[in-house]
Amino acid sequence: MLRRSILRTAALAAAAVVASAGWSAPASADEGELRIGLNNWAENVAVSNMWKILLEEKGYDVELISAGKSVIYDGVARKNLDIGLEVWMPTTDKPFYSKYEDRIALQDAWYRGTGLGLVVPAYVDEVDTIPELKANAEMFDEKIVGIDPGSALMGLTEDAIDAYGLEDFELVASSGPGMTSALKKAIRQDEPVVVTLWNPHWAFADFDLKYLKDPKNVYGQGENIHWMSHMDLKDENPKVVEWLNAWDMNDQQLGGLMAVINEVGDPAKGASQWIGNNRELVDSWMQ
Fold this sequence. Notes:
Helices cover 44% and strands 20% of the residues. It contains 12 helices and 10 strands.
């Protein structure tokens, strides 16, 4: 019930943001212009900036629109956005996808074998499973540091709190960067912290972390990340659909892209640098 309430709230927020942003469907399709919905997850920031550069090299005018997942789904469904690059299937994004599946085109997977759940630094020896959090709530100040309110991962974490009897914990809504900031701070001070996290993510390369085992499988098994478009993109921009459906990245490639961006500290500059070092790979997607 709580999760459904979160999704309804997110949907209302999506409509409000779309209205306040002044988004409206273009009067006519222009194959030279593309709008990509960008949600603030590390891998999404990385690949969105990468594709902005690659498509601009082909002569497209590309705009990245920052928004939450619910807003992006609504925007693609309404053709206010052309593309969303991150759809986790079959579990994580199912509530969003089920709502809009008749109005969006789910395209091919570009990354396979994701993970998500609750994560602690590896030095936290006392806790290896989610059920063990209950007896160690004080160690974590009775807080789980989350990401964007209304995101699928936060909804699953609400489910995990119910399933494992973690009512003593407060799920603190934040953002992707806010969560990683809290994680970094705790690790610098060698303190316990539990966060909502997922892979692919650069944090697993930078820090020694561990997922807490999820015996009830609340967070599901490994998934694939797809991209989505509005229904007419294939007719309006067939080459774009062809290029994006040829796109495929493994852990090393995606991790490398995120690591460069994190090191450079600028998504556009980092993506440009990575593209320059991986020209053969990106050209293979766009033949």
